[in-house]
Specification:
Elements (H helix, E strand, L loop, with lengths): L13 H15 L4 H17 L3 H13 L3 H11 L7 H13 L1 E4 L2 E4 L2 H30 L5
Antiparallel strand pairs: 1-2
Helix pairs in contact: 1-2, 1-3, 2-3, 3-4, 3-5
């Protein structure tokens, strides 16, 4: 399991743990980069100090929301998959996996949020350039500008 607290006075109460999970969860849904960074920091720190199945389940969901699938895979490899994730949140994580996936032939390539945004941006730019090129070609051909 994840980390362990070093002394009795360092232990967080159940209420504090729930509050930190809630804050991390809310920030993971934000569009702001700083909020996403905060969400990652909070849940990572909790994993390092709390040995709890609920924190493990929350981390799985939060990392999915952040599009950090490599981090989530590492989490699952190290600690196993949590059984404390409600079905509707499992459905959310599954939909995020599919949303951030690119299919090449029969392979599914899972991308992080950054990679997926970069991929869609490149795809859009290439499409615009191609359309502009084809448009110029048609205009040049129709009006006798083609060499």
């Amino acid at each position: 399991m994840p980390g362990e607290s070093t002394s009795e006075s360092d232990k967080l109460t159940e209420k504090e743990i729930n509050r930190l999970i809630a804050i991390s969860s809310m920030k993971s849904l934000s569009d702001r980069d700083q909020d996403k960074t905060d969400a990652y920091s909070i849940i990572s720190d909790l994993l390092n100090i709390i040995d709890d199945e609920k924190v493990l389940g929350a981390a799985d969901v939060i990392l999915s929301r952040l599009g950090n699938f490599p981090g989530r895979a590492l989490l699952r490899n190290r600690f196993g998959e949590s059984n404390k994730v409600p079905s509707f949140l499992k459905l959310e994580t599954l939909s995020r996996e599919i949303e951030n996936s690119v299919f090449d032939d029969d392979r599914k390539i899972q991308l992080t949020d950054f990679q997926y945004k970069f991929y869609t941006s490149l795809k859009r730019k290439i499409s615009q350039c191609f359309c502009t090129y084809i448009g110029r070609k048609v205009v040049h051909t129709r009006h006798g500008f083609d060499r």
